[in-house]
Amino acid sequence: MACALLVKVEGRVTGVGFRYSAMRFAAGLPGLHGYIRNTAYDAVEAWIQGPEAEVARMLEWLRHGPSSALVVRVAVNSVTPRDDLPFFTIQ
After folding, report:
1. Strand partners, 78
2. Domain extents in the chain
3. Were 4 and a residue from 46, 65, 72, 81 both cysteine, which residue would form a disulfide, CB within 3.0 to 4.6 Å?
4. Contact 47, 4 (CB under 8 A)
């Protein structure tokens, strides 16, 4: 069953390779779709959707990110899956 989450990650998550590391991690999760982008200073937003197990694994990764990041807050919202996200990208 597919699910979708909109995740806001705050902390030292810009300028540390967070988005590129997220894209590499997502590439190893079959069926995961969505995007990650900078939203404001020290914040990124990720739309993750796909099979529940892959979404859960990606969410867990977003909670800590790469070793160069310092995640201080994660806000998670359930959203309706979209049909226009064929793969996981950086926006």
Report:
1. 5
2. 2-90
3. 81
4. yes
| Residue type (1 letter), 59 | L
Q: pTM value?
A: 0.94
- Let me know: does 76 contact 59? Beta carbons within 8 Å: yes
Catalytic residue of the set 19, 57, 63, 82: 19
Mean pLDDT, all residues of the chain: 95
For residue 19, indicate whether it is catalytic: yes
| Given the residues 24, 37, 38, 57, the one annotated as active site | 38
Q: Report which secondary-structure segment, H or E, holds 12.
A: strand 2-12
pLDDT tens per residue, range 37-63: 999 788 999 999 999 999 999 999 999
Q: Is 16 exposed, middle or buried (0-12, 13-18, 19+ CB in 10 A)?
A: middle
Q: Is 38 known to be catalytic?
A: yes
